[in-house]
Amino acid sequence: MPEVIGIDKPAPHSERDERMVLSAILRDPSRFDEAAQYVRASHFYRDAYQKVFAAFETLVSEGREVHLEGVVDYLASRKELANVVSVRSRHALRAEVRSGFSHS
Q1: 3-class DSSP state for residue 5?
Q2: What local confidence, expressed as pLDDT, does residue 46 receive?
Q3: What is the separation of C-alpha 6 from the centre of its chain, rounded to a whole number of angstroms?
Q4: What secondary structure, in 3-state letters, does 7-74 show?
Q5: Which has the closest alpha carbon to 71: 63, 81, 61, 62?
Q6: Which DSSP symbol is given to 4?
Q7: Which of 1, 19, 50, 80 could form a disulfide with 41 if both were Cys (CB 3.0 to 4.6 A apart)?
């Protein structure tokens, strides 16, 4: 849930920047450690992006590598894959990553 400022104003956010962070980590998993110094899953505005970043956090905490198949498997095992970036399949998530999580 986004932080609310004032009565009906959501906290400032940039979906484009959030997509870039997620895509950058999936393309180069070594970037996760640096990003995790500043960002937590709850910092993302969209619930789907929170779930993807939380998957990164869990994989790393379990000593597993952050890569697309691992994220897909993790989200599928939690029955959250269909909720992530409006995708309905592994193939669609791969396409989303390649396009930088652009919107359909």
Answers
A1: strand
A2: 85
A3: 27
A4: CCEECCCCHHHHHHHHHHHHHCCCHHHHHHCCCCHHHCCCHHHHHHHHHHHHHHHCCCCCCHHHHHHH
A5: 81
A6: E
A7: 50
Region of residue 102 (left: phi > 0; alpha: psi -120 to 50; beta: else): beta
Please list the ranges in the chain whose pLDDT falls under 70.
Answer: 1-12, 85-104
Contact (Cβ atoms closer than 8 angstroms) between residue 36 and residue 60: yes
Indicate the residue type of 96. E
Phi and psi at residue 100, in whole multiples of 5°? Answer: 75, 35
Residues in the chain: 104
* Strand-pair partners of 5: 9
Looking at residue 103, what is its pLDDT? 47
Fold of 12-98: DNAb Helicase; Chain A (1.10.860)
